[in-house]
Amino acid sequence: MKFLVLIALVAVAAAAPAKLDEDKPIEIISSNSEMNADGSYSFDFESADGTKVSESGSQKQVGPKPEDIGTVSKGSYSFTTPDGVVLTVNWVADENGFQATGDHLPTPPPMPEHVVKMLADLKAAGLL
C-alpha cells in the first residue's frame, strides 16, 4: 500500500508543470508619473518585454449640475504576442463610457442599407 502511495506521489510530481522563465519578474525600463492639484494626472511605463502603457486624465463636468464632476481619461497600451505581433489598444473613458479601439479588436458589421434609410426617415419625420 505504501508503495502505491509513493508511486502516486511521484506521478503527481512528474505531472506538475515545470517552472518557466514566465515566473521571472519583468524589468521596468522607464516609468513616469504626474499628479496635479487640479486632479489631472498622467503616467506611463515601459517594460523590458516591450509592453508600454500610457494614461492621462482630468476632471470634467459630466452632467448638467456643477457638482457633476467626473474623471475623464485616455490612454493606450501595447504588448507583443507570443508570435511576435505588437498589438496596441487606444482607449477613452468619459461620460460616454469606455471605448477601446485597435486594429485587432472586432468591430460590428455595417448597418444594412434598409435600416439606415428607415432611421433617416424616422429622424426626418421628427420621431427620433
TrEMBL record:
Q: Which residues form the signal peptide?
A: 1-15
Keywords tagged on the record: Cuticle, Signal
Q: Which domain of life is it from?
A: Eukaryota
Which residue ranges does the record annotate as region Disordered?
A: 47-75
| Pfam families referenced in this protein's UniProt entry, alphabetically | Chitin_bind_4
Is Nucleotidyltransferase among the key words of this record?
no
Any one Gene Ontology MF annotation carried by this entry is: structural constituent of chitin-based larval cuticle
Q: Which PROSITE patterns has this protein been placed in?
A: CHIT_BIND_RR_2 (PS51155)
Q: Name one GO cellular component term.
A: chitin-based extracellular matrix
Its protein name is Endocuticle structural glycoprotein SgAbd-2
Q: Which species is this UniProt entry from?
A: Daphnia pulex (Water flea)
